[in-house]
Amino acid sequence: MSELENEINEQKTIFSNSIKRIKDNVNAACDLISNKNPIFIIGSGTSYHSALYLNSMLDMVSINSRAVQSSQLKYIINNSDYKNGLIIAFSQSGESKDLIDAIESTSGTKFTVIGITNSSKSKLTELSDVFISLNAGAEKAVTATKSFTTSLLASIIIRDTINNTETDFAGLENTITDILNNRKIKEISKSITDNVIVLGDGLNYTIALEGALKLRETANIIGEGFPFREYLHGYIETLDKNTTVICIGNRPDKEISEYTDNIILLDDYISSSINSELFPIYYAIMLQLLAMHSALNRNLDPDRPEKLHKVVK
């Protein structure tokens, strides 16, 4: 079993502990989020997708924030009059150069930093005024899996804490076990071509972006994520029978089926009777599985993609 497969499988057992630990350590961060402005949420790659997801969670409780790729924050700070506010920084390792540079670009200002990371001893935790540990356990494979899904859990818990509500996580790990045991996911991976479009709306747009990235970095597939209707605005021009379209949470517009019949509906592989609020987590795991199997189908090493490193320095 590859390290990537092992880490994907661990998601069926680690979440109960992660949820408890995050809940125990989230209050100070939520106090800052409720009282600071502006709020920038930063990350790179998969961590940027975590930032987008938290941004959507904060929208639900009427808190204005802005998700920014780590490498771009310095341009915003340098070309504005922002002197104080809040930075929420996502990083699996806590060592990403672009993220550290982004935080250090605010030196001389009064920005407060919340670090959200899977590594409790890192440069990010040193630079943070408050930090939240994801407690997902070490990831040896280059591509992030369980640290991403636990970041989604952290975002849900932050929203709930601010809003004084509580999401029902009962059945989460049982549903994940069912997904991991679904042999059909391995079978449909055989139909995935070298060009993939992943479509999703709302919260699922973030998952579409992450799924496309997973396919790209794990299986060397040219993957792109879009909202369903946005894809029709010019991007559909390059759609053909050699393109696979993966749909999250909805069915494709009829225009798409006119140009390709290689369409995968993730909703066909998940029960509609479970808590729909947790669907983005389930979709993310399905896409991780598809990426891993696609790599193996192409005789690629799913643990160590040729051009990637665990930490971008």
TrEMBL record:
GO MF assignments: carbohydrate derivative binding; glutamine-fructose-6-phosphate transaminase (isomerizing) activity
User: Which residue intervals define the domain SIS in the entry?
Assistant: 29-162
Q: Which domain of life is it from?
A: Archaea
Q: Does the keyword Repeat apply?
A: yes
InterPro entries, per database record: GlmS/AgaS_SIS (IPR035466), GlmS/FrlB_SIS (IPR035490), SIS_dom (IPR001347), SIS_dom_sf (IPR046348)
Q: Name one GO biological process term.
A: protein N-linked glycosylation
Pfam hit, one = SIS
UniProt name for this protein? SIS domain-containing protein
Q: What organism does the record attribute this protein to?
A: Ferroplasma acidiphilum
